[in-house]
Amino acid sequence: MSAASLHVVTLTLNPALDLTVHADGWRQGEVNSGQGFQLDAGGKGVNVAAFLADWGLSVTATGLLGDENPEAFEGLFRAKSVHDAFVRVPGSTRVGIKLVDGAAQETTDINLPGLAAIPQALAELDTRLSALTADHTVFVLAGSLPPGVDAGFYARLTAKLRGAGCFVALDTSGPALTAALAADVLPDLVKPNIHELEAALGRSLHGEAEVLAAARELLRRGASLVAVSQGEQGALLVSSHEAVRARPPHVNVKSTVGAGDAMVAGLISAHADRLGLTDAARRATAFSVGAITRLGAHLPPHAELEKFVTQVAVEAVEGVETA
Protein backbone atom coordinates (compact mmCIF):
# COMPACT_ATOMS: atom_id res chain seq x y z
CA MET A 1 0.00 0.00 0.00
CA SER A 2 1.20 3.50 -0.82
CA ALA A 3 -0.25 6.90 -0.08
CA ALA A 4 -1.09 7.28 -3.76
CA SER A 5 -3.19 4.10 -3.75
CA LEU A 6 -4.94 4.77 -0.44
CA HIS A 7 -8.56 5.87 -0.62
CA VAL A 8 -10.03 7.17 2.63
CA VAL A 9 -13.65 7.57 3.71
CA THR A 10 -14.55 9.85 6.60
CA LEU A 11 -17.94 9.45 8.24
CA THR A 12 -19.61 12.38 10.03
CA LEU A 13 -23.11 11.67 11.29
CA ASN A 14 -23.43 14.94 13.21
CA PRO A 15 -21.66 17.69 11.24
CA ALA A 16 -21.79 21.32 12.27
CA LEU A 17 -21.27 24.79 10.93
CA ASP A 18 -18.58 26.14 13.23
CA LEU A 19 -19.18 29.79 14.12
CA THR A 20 -15.88 31.01 15.57
CA VAL A 21 -16.17 34.33 17.41
CA HIS A 22 -12.98 36.12 18.47
CA ALA A 23 -13.52 38.04 21.70
CA ASP A 24 -10.32 38.59 23.67
CA GLY A 25 -10.91 38.84 27.40
CA TRP A 26 -14.63 38.07 27.19
CA ARG A 27 -16.44 37.62 30.49
CA GLN A 28 -19.38 35.36 31.22
CA GLY A 29 -22.61 37.21 32.06
CA GLU A 30 -21.41 40.54 30.66
CA VAL A 31 -21.72 42.44 27.38
CA ASN A 32 -18.57 41.70 25.39
CA SER A 33 -16.99 43.14 22.27
CA GLY A 34 -15.79 40.79 19.56
CA GLN A 35 -12.97 41.34 17.10
CA GLY A 36 -14.39 39.19 14.30
CA PHE A 37 -16.00 35.92 13.34
CA GLN A 38 -15.65 33.08 10.86
CA LEU A 39 -18.11 30.43 9.69
CA ASP A 40 -16.64 27.08 8.62
CA ALA A 41 -18.02 23.72 7.60
CA GLY A 42 -17.07 21.41 10.43
CA GLY A 43 -17.63 18.21 12.33
CA LYS A 44 -14.85 15.80 13.23
CA GLY A 45 -14.97 13.68 10.10
CA VAL A 46 -15.32 16.72 7.85
CA ASN A 47 -12.21 18.20 9.47
CA VAL A 48 -10.26 14.96 9.04
CA ALA A 49 -11.24 14.88 5.37
CA ALA A 50 -10.07 18.47 4.89
CA PHE A 51 -6.70 17.82 6.54
CA LEU A 52 -6.11 14.63 4.55
CA ALA A 53 -6.99 16.40 1.31
CA ASP A 54 -4.49 19.15 2.16
CA TRP A 55 -1.85 16.44 2.58
CA GLY A 56 -2.71 15.07 -0.85
CA LEU A 57 -4.69 11.91 -0.13
CA SER A 58 -7.83 10.84 -2.00
CA VAL A 59 -10.78 11.37 0.35
CA THR A 60 -14.51 10.72 0.26
CA ALA A 61 -16.63 12.40 2.93
CA THR A 62 -19.99 10.91 3.86
CA GLY A 63 -22.58 11.11 6.62
CA LEU A 64 -25.80 13.03 7.14
CA LEU A 65 -26.11 16.67 6.02
CA GLY A 66 -29.04 19.07 6.29
CA ASP A 67 -30.46 20.01 2.89
CA GLU A 68 -31.32 23.58 3.91
CA ASN A 69 -27.77 24.90 4.48
CA PRO A 70 -25.20 22.68 2.69
CA GLU A 71 -23.41 25.49 0.85
CA ALA A 72 -20.43 25.86 3.20
CA PHE A 73 -19.80 22.10 3.10
CA GLU A 74 -20.15 21.89 -0.66
CA GLY A 75 -17.77 24.83 -1.08
CA LEU A 76 -15.17 23.20 1.20
CA PHE A 77 -15.37 19.90 -0.66
CA ARG A 78 -14.97 21.62 -4.04
CA ALA A 79 -12.03 23.69 -2.84
CA LYS A 80 -10.17 20.68 -1.47
CA SER A 81 -11.26 18.12 -4.10
CA VAL A 82 -13.01 15.95 -1.50
CA HIS A 83 -15.64 13.65 -2.98
CA ASP A 84 -19.05 14.52 -1.49
CA ALA A 85 -21.01 11.36 -0.64
CA PHE A 86 -23.16 12.86 2.12
CA VAL A 87 -26.80 11.83 2.38
CA ARG A 88 -28.99 14.94 2.43
CA VAL A 89 -31.66 14.98 5.15
CA PRO A 90 -34.51 17.47 5.70
CA GLY A 91 -33.63 20.49 7.82
CA SER A 92 -30.62 22.62 8.74
CA THR A 93 -27.27 21.32 9.87
CA ARG A 94 -26.55 22.43 13.44
CA VAL A 95 -24.30 25.32 14.44
CA GLY A 96 -21.40 24.94 16.86
CA ILE A 97 -20.24 28.13 18.57
CA LYS A 98 -16.56 28.64 19.40
CA LEU A 99 -15.67 31.59 21.63
CA VAL A 100 -11.97 32.25 21.20
CA ASP A 101 -10.06 34.32 23.73
CA GLY A 102 -6.80 34.96 21.92
CA ALA A 103 -5.20 36.71 24.87
CA ALA A 104 -5.75 33.72 27.14
CA GLN A 105 -5.36 31.20 24.29
CA GLU A 106 -8.61 29.53 25.35
CA THR A 107 -11.58 28.31 23.32
CA THR A 108 -15.06 27.77 24.79
CA ASP A 109 -17.36 25.44 22.83
CA ILE A 110 -21.15 25.53 22.75
CA ASN A 111 -22.45 22.52 20.81
CA LEU A 112 -26.08 22.51 19.74
CA PRO A 113 -27.98 19.26 19.08
CA GLY A 114 -27.99 17.90 15.56
CA LEU A 115 -30.77 16.89 13.20
CA ALA A 116 -32.58 13.70 14.11
CA ALA A 117 -31.58 10.84 11.82
CA ILE A 118 -34.58 9.29 10.08
CA PRO A 119 -34.62 5.57 9.18
CA GLN A 120 -34.71 6.22 5.42
CA ALA A 121 -31.55 8.34 5.61
CA LEU A 122 -29.73 5.74 7.69
CA ALA A 123 -30.72 3.02 5.22
CA GLU A 124 -29.38 5.09 2.31
CA LEU A 125 -26.18 5.78 4.24
CA ASP A 126 -25.72 2.06 4.89
CA THR A 127 -26.04 1.39 1.17
CA ARG A 128 -23.44 4.05 0.35
CA LEU A 129 -20.99 2.76 2.95
CA SER A 130 -21.31 -0.78 1.61
CA ALA A 131 -20.61 0.46 -1.91
CA LEU A 132 -17.59 2.46 -0.76
CA THR A 133 -15.90 -0.65 0.67
CA ALA A 134 -15.36 -1.82 -2.91
CA ASP A 135 -12.62 0.72 -3.59
CA HIS A 136 -11.84 2.41 -0.25
CA THR A 137 -9.52 0.76 2.25
CA VAL A 138 -9.57 3.15 5.23
CA PHE A 139 -12.63 4.41 7.10
CA VAL A 140 -12.53 7.15 9.75
CA LEU A 141 -15.59 7.14 12.02
CA ALA A 142 -15.60 10.44 13.83
CA GLY A 143 -17.74 12.63 16.02
CA SER A 144 -20.89 12.41 18.08
CA LEU A 145 -24.07 10.57 17.16
CA PRO A 146 -27.18 12.62 16.34
CA PRO A 147 -30.64 11.97 17.79
CA GLY A 148 -32.12 8.85 16.26
CA VAL A 149 -28.85 6.88 16.21
CA ASP A 150 -28.23 4.45 19.07
CA ALA A 151 -24.93 4.18 20.96
CA GLY A 152 -24.01 0.87 19.33
CA PHE A 153 -23.89 2.29 15.78
CA TYR A 154 -20.10 2.64 15.56
CA ALA A 155 -19.55 -0.76 17.17
CA ARG A 156 -21.71 -2.51 14.58
CA LEU A 157 -20.22 -0.53 11.69
CA THR A 158 -16.68 -1.28 12.87
CA ALA A 159 -17.40 -5.02 12.82
CA LYS A 160 -18.91 -4.75 9.34
CA LEU A 161 -16.03 -2.71 7.90
CA ARG A 162 -13.28 -4.78 9.46
CA GLY A 163 -15.07 -7.89 8.23
CA ALA A 164 -14.76 -6.40 4.72
CA GLY A 165 -11.00 -6.04 5.22
CA CYS A 166 -10.97 -2.28 5.84
CA PHE A 167 -8.78 -0.36 8.30
CA VAL A 168 -11.04 1.46 10.78
CA ALA A 169 -10.16 4.50 12.88
CA LEU A 170 -12.53 5.75 15.57
CA ASP A 171 -12.63 9.14 17.27
CA THR A 172 -15.74 9.63 19.36
CA SER A 173 -16.78 9.94 22.99
CA GLY A 174 -19.51 9.17 25.49
CA PRO A 175 -21.79 6.13 25.14
CA ALA A 176 -20.71 5.60 21.51
CA LEU A 177 -17.08 5.14 22.59
CA THR A 178 -18.07 3.00 25.56
CA ALA A 179 -20.05 0.67 23.28
CA ALA A 180 -17.28 0.52 20.67
CA LEU A 181 -14.61 -0.38 23.22
CA ALA A 182 -16.84 -3.03 24.81
CA ALA A 183 -17.61 -4.72 21.49
CA ASP A 184 -16.16 -8.00 20.26
CA VAL A 185 -14.49 -6.29 17.29
CA LEU A 186 -12.50 -3.13 18.03
CA PRO A 187 -11.33 -0.45 15.58
CA ASP A 188 -7.75 -0.67 14.32
CA LEU A 189 -7.03 2.84 15.60
CA VAL A 190 -8.60 4.41 18.67
CA LYS A 191 -7.86 8.06 19.53
CA PRO A 192 -9.55 9.21 22.73
CA ASN A 193 -8.35 11.96 25.00
CA ILE A 194 -7.62 10.93 28.56
CA HIS A 195 -11.04 12.02 29.88
CA GLU A 196 -12.92 10.22 27.10
CA LEU A 197 -10.93 7.04 27.76
CA GLU A 198 -11.66 7.17 31.49
CA ALA A 199 -15.37 7.67 30.85
CA ALA A 200 -15.49 4.83 28.32
CA LEU A 201 -13.70 2.39 30.61
CA GLY A 202 -15.66 3.48 33.67
CA ARG A 203 -12.63 4.14 35.84
CA SER A 204 -10.08 6.84 36.59
CA LEU A 205 -6.59 6.44 35.16
CA HIS A 206 -4.02 7.71 37.63
CA GLY A 207 -0.67 8.30 36.01
CA GLU A 208 0.98 7.11 32.85
CA ALA A 209 1.28 3.48 33.93
CA GLU A 210 -2.49 3.10 34.22
CA VAL A 211 -3.06 4.81 30.86
CA LEU A 212 -0.61 2.40 29.27
CA ALA A 213 -2.28 -0.57 30.94
CA ALA A 214 -5.65 0.55 29.59
CA ALA A 215 -4.19 0.94 26.10
CA ARG A 216 -2.60 -2.53 26.24
CA GLU A 217 -5.97 -3.95 27.26
CA LEU A 218 -7.50 -2.57 24.04
CA LEU A 219 -4.58 -3.87 21.99
CA ARG A 220 -5.02 -7.37 23.38
CA ARG A 221 -8.65 -7.22 22.30
CA GLY A 222 -7.89 -6.34 18.69
CA ALA A 223 -6.87 -2.70 18.27
CA SER A 224 -3.52 -2.10 16.58
CA LEU A 225 -2.84 1.46 17.79
CA VAL A 226 -4.16 3.49 20.70
CA ALA A 227 -3.36 7.22 20.76
CA VAL A 228 -4.34 9.04 23.94
CA SER A 229 -4.21 12.80 23.44
CA GLN A 230 -3.47 15.04 26.42
CA GLY A 231 -3.69 18.59 25.05
CA GLU A 232 -0.59 20.71 25.59
CA GLN A 233 1.10 17.71 27.22
CA GLY A 234 1.07 15.90 23.88
CA ALA A 235 0.01 12.32 23.41
CA LEU A 236 0.83 8.73 24.30
CA LEU A 237 0.86 6.34 21.36
CA VAL A 238 0.85 2.64 22.11
CA SER A 239 1.19 -0.30 19.71
CA SER A 240 1.59 -3.98 20.44
CA HIS A 241 5.38 -3.75 20.77
CA GLU A 242 6.20 -0.21 21.86
CA ALA A 243 4.94 3.03 23.32
CA VAL A 244 6.08 6.60 22.83
CA ARG A 245 5.32 9.97 24.34
CA ALA A 246 5.11 12.90 21.88
CA ARG A 247 5.29 16.51 23.04
CA PRO A 248 4.53 19.42 20.69
CA PRO A 249 6.63 22.58 20.35
CA HIS A 250 5.25 25.89 21.56
CA VAL A 251 3.57 27.85 18.77
CA ASN A 252 1.29 30.84 18.39
CA VAL A 253 -2.19 29.34 18.82
CA LYS A 254 -4.95 30.84 16.70
CA SER A 255 -7.57 28.22 17.59
CA THR A 256 -7.53 24.76 19.14
CA VAL A 257 -10.60 23.75 17.12
CA GLY A 258 -9.76 20.66 15.07
CA ALA A 259 -6.46 19.86 16.79
CA GLY A 260 -7.56 16.32 17.64
CA ASP A 261 -8.98 15.82 14.15
CA ALA A 262 -5.65 16.87 12.67
CA MET A 263 -3.91 14.26 14.84
CA VAL A 264 -6.24 11.58 13.45
CA ALA A 265 -5.44 12.76 9.91
CA GLY A 266 -1.72 12.63 10.70
CA LEU A 267 -2.04 9.06 11.97
CA ILE A 268 -3.96 8.03 8.83
CA SER A 269 -1.29 9.58 6.60
CA ALA A 270 1.37 7.77 8.64
CA HIS A 271 -0.54 4.51 8.15
CA ALA A 272 -0.58 5.17 4.41
CA ASP A 273 3.19 5.65 4.39
CA ARG A 274 3.81 2.68 6.72
CA LEU A 275 5.68 4.82 9.22
CA GLY A 276 6.98 3.36 12.44
CA LEU A 277 5.49 4.49 15.73
CA THR A 278 8.06 7.20 16.43
CA ASP A 279 7.72 8.79 12.99
CA ALA A 280 3.93 8.42 13.14
CA ALA A 281 3.91 10.26 16.47
CA ARG A 282 6.01 13.07 15.02
CA ARG A 283 3.80 13.49 11.97
CA ALA A 284 0.50 13.28 13.86
CA THR A 285 1.68 15.83 16.41
CA ALA A 286 2.99 18.08 13.63
CA PHE A 287 -0.43 17.94 11.93
CA SER A 288 -2.06 18.97 15.20
CA VAL A 289 0.43 21.79 15.74
CA GLY A 290 -0.03 23.01 12.19
CA ALA A 291 -3.81 23.03 12.58
CA ILE A 292 -3.81 25.23 15.69
CA THR A 293 -1.75 27.89 13.89
CA ARG A 294 -4.65 28.40 11.46
CA LEU A 295 -8.38 29.07 11.54
CA GLY A 296 -10.59 26.38 10.08
CA ALA A 297 -9.55 22.90 8.98
CA HIS A 298 -6.44 23.81 7.01
CA LEU A 299 -2.90 22.47 7.18
CA PRO A 300 0.11 24.69 6.53
CA PRO A 301 2.31 23.96 3.49
CA HIS A 302 4.37 20.75 3.59
CA ALA A 303 7.62 22.62 4.25
CA GLU A 304 6.16 24.20 7.38
CA LEU A 305 4.75 20.87 8.53
CA GLU A 306 8.13 19.22 8.10
CA LYS A 307 9.65 21.95 10.26
CA PHE A 308 7.14 21.13 12.99
CA VAL A 309 8.00 17.44 12.61
CA THR A 310 11.61 18.18 13.55
CA GLN A 311 10.46 20.15 16.60
CA VAL A 312 8.27 17.42 18.07
CA ALA A 313 9.92 15.72 21.04
CA VAL A 314 9.34 11.96 21.04
CA GLU A 315 10.67 9.58 23.66
CA ALA A 316 10.15 5.91 24.30
CA VAL A 317 8.12 4.96 27.35
CA GLU A 318 10.12 2.47 29.34
CA GLY A 319 8.88 -0.74 30.86
CA VAL A 320 6.05 -1.33 28.42
CA GLU A 321 4.78 -4.87 28.21
CA THR A 322 3.85 -6.22 24.82
CA ALA A 323 0.16 -6.82 24.20
UniProtKB/TrEMBL annotation:
Lineage, highest ranks first: Bacteria, Thermotogati, Deinococcota, Deinococci, Deinococcales
A biological process from GO: carbohydrate catabolic process
PANTHER family noted in UniProt: 1-PHOSPHOFRUCTOKINASE, 1-PHOSPHOFRUCTOKINASE-RELATED
Gene Ontology CC entries for this record: cytosol
Primary role: Catalyzes the ATP-dependent phosphorylation of fructose-l-phosphate to fructose-l,6-bisphosphate.
Catalytic activity, EC: 2.7.1.56
Keywords: ATP-binding, Kinase, Nucleotide-binding, Transferase
Protein's UniProt name: 1-phosphofructokinase
Catalytic activity as recorded in UniProt: beta-D-fructose 1-phosphate + ATP = beta-D-fructose 1,6-bisphosphate + ADP + H(+)
Enzyme class: transferase
GO molecular function terms noted in the UniProt entry: 1-phosphofructokinase activity; ATP binding
Record-stated family: Belongs to the carbohydrate kinase PfkB family.
InterPro entries, per the entry: 1-PFruKinase, Carboh/pur_kinase_PfkB_CS, PfkB_dom, Ribokinase-like, Tagatose/fructose_Pkinase
Pfam families reported for this sequence: PfkB
Gene3D superfamilies: 3.40.1190.20
Domain Carbohydrate kinase PfkB: 24-299
